[in-house]
Amino acid sequence: MKNLSISLMPTFLLIFLFQHLVSGQELFGINNATIEEETIVPIYHFEHIPDFTYNEVAKKISAMETDMPFELNERIFSFINYFVVRNREYTKMVIQRKDIYFPMFEEALLDHDMPEDIKFLSIIESGLNPKAKSRVGALGLWQFMPATGKSYGLDYNNDVDLRMDPELSSDAAAKYLKALYRMFGDWELALAAYNCGPGNVRKAIRRSGGKKTFWGVYDFLPKETRSYVPQFQAMMYVMRYAEDHNLILEQPTYPIAYEKIRFNQELDLEQLAAVSGICIEDLEHLNPAVQNRMIPASNQSMAVNVPKSKAVFITENKEQFADAVKLTSEKSVALRANAITTTNTPKPAVVAATTNKAPANQNKITYVVKSGDVLGSIAQKHGTTVTNIKNWNNLPSNTIKVGQKLAIYKKESSFDSNLANVASSPAQTPQFYTVQPGDSLWIISKKFNGITIDQIKKLNNLNSNQIKPGQKLKIG
User: Fold this and answer.
1) Is residue 104 domain-resident?
2) Of the four listed, 61, 68, 270, 390, which is most buried by Cβ atoms within 10 Å?
3) Three-state SS for 353?
């Protein structure tokens, strides 16, 4: 019996050890809570750009549920590349703003029995900036010209411009686009007409021999319009599949909930902010159509958007506030004068821009901002980065204005050298190009003038248009 107990001891000891290991590892003084605390959380890389192919994008587009279908081509694919690779800052900016404006866009489009995807057009028009202004005078989220805006009820004066009213301009845009669709019977042509005017679209149809599709009249449209519709279609895809391209916000922004209150009198917004405890900047943000912190007699029937948290307090005390917030003639003069001074006074950041040192061994050029420019497109055009341009010009944000002058420093890039080598090398020596993130065969063919997509495919024995970063392509 003694020998049996001795022989069984190792077995009991193993069972004892196993039970204690499974139940919490107390035998060795290891605590589960300690293990959890020491777990290393993986770091999320917001700047990571996932690879993607033409066929993968085409498959996703074919699965899209939309009333505005389109077929992927190299032109659209190049703009998808642009928005998800080359100008990710711009795309993240509009993703940040979309929750502010998309609900009202969707409501206006639904009211007029319009395709919901038309909401993405405002991204191409204004970058979802209600105060966006073009060099030719188009204004607001939907970039209405003065005459067209007036014909759809968007009146304006020195103090109030309803083209910058998000709700009213969205309703007007829906009406105008619907009229253009009735005119042409095709959404792509309607969008083209929104950009360049129905007269130019009719002219393109005539010059094409009567073709009535966007791609049928593509070569006869103004240059800007040929890019406009493919950009819109690219954005339809990008906004649906932003997360697939790691376009995720590090710090999401949330819209200010608001309600409308009608005072039916001339109104001093600074006084309204003072008596209600609202931040004046919040009032300006919620009322972008109001230009000089005042509502004049000509617009006294318009409603004012106020933060929802203050709406009940203001409504209950509106009669008591009436005299305090009424605009006086003296205050109106002061507000207009202050608005002019603020507009014309350089911001400290701009004044200090001269303190930035020029990069060594680089040539300075002065670039004048044009309508439709964003920092990303300017950076791409000059072979630099948005961060560089902001640093060189001491820009506090990505906001730029038409006519603004930007200092840009440029040196011969590896791509320029590669291109120069191609031009100067003997014909029998093969020349190669290394595919960069965001490249497509169409983009590469444009970089190397004189070579076509088909020629690149033949030189490299490619059976499709698929290429990937790091791949070496023979280009001559």
Assistant:
1) yes
2) 61
3) helix
User: Any idea how long the chain is?
Assistant: 476
Report the predicted TM-score, pTM, of the whole model to 2 decimal places.
0.66
Question: Residue 299 domain-assigned?
Answer: yes
Q: Which of 449, 455, 442 is nearest to 234 (CA)?
A: 442
Q: What is the Cα–Cα distance from 333 to 261, expressed in whole angstroms?
A: 25
Taken in order 464, 468, 471, 475, the sign of the CA dihedral is: positive
One domain for residues 123 and 188: yes
Specify the 3-state DSSP secondary structure of 188: helix
Q: What angle do CA 239, 445, 47 make, to 5 degrees?
A: 35
Phi, psi of 335 (to 5 degrees): -65, -40
Same domain for 301 and 399, yes or no, is no
8 A C-beta contact, residue 467 and residue 460: no
Active-site positions read 125
Q: For residue 15, give both structure tokens.
A: 């069972």
Q: How far apart are CA 159 and CA 149, in angstroms?
A: 16
- Distance between CA 350 and CA 21 in Å, rounded? 66
Secondary-structure percent of the chain, ordered helix, strand, coil, rounded to 5: 55, 10, 35
Residue 326 to residue 346: CA distance in whole angstroms: 31
The SS3 of residue 409 is: strand
Strands 363-368 and 405-410: antiparallel
Same domain membership, residue 139 and residue 10: no
Residues 117 and 175 in one domain: yes
Q: What is the DSSP string of 94-124?
A: HHHHHHHHHHHHHHHHHHTT--GGGGGHHHH
- C-alpha 139/C-alpha 133 separation (Å) is 5
Q: Tokens 């994008």 label which residue?
A: 57
Q: Is 305 in a helix, a strand, or coil?
A: strand
Separation between Cα atoms, residue 239 and residue 48, nearest integer Å: 18
Domain of 404, CATH number, reads 3.10.350.10
Q: CA-CA distance, 128 to 271, in Å (whole number)?
A: 29
Structure tokens at 313: 């307090």
Q: What is the mean pLDDT of each run of 10 residues along the chain (476 residues)?
A: 45 46 41 51 68 95 92 96 93 94 97 97 97 93 96 95 97 98 97 97 97 96 96 97 92 87 94 91 95 94 95 91 89 84 46 42 79 70 73 75 83 40 43 75 70 82 80 82
Asked whether the CA dihedral 187, 191, 197, 200 is positive or negative, the reply is negative
How far apart are alpha carbons 422 and 413 in whole angstroms? Answer: 14
CA atoms within 13 A on the CB side of 327: 24
For residue 6, the Cα-to-chain-centroid distance in whole angstroms is 78
Helix and strand element counts for the chain (H, E): 23, 8
Residue reference for tokens 């840009």: 408
- Are 378 and 365 a contacting pair, CB within 8 Å? no
Domain that residue 209 falls in: 54-245
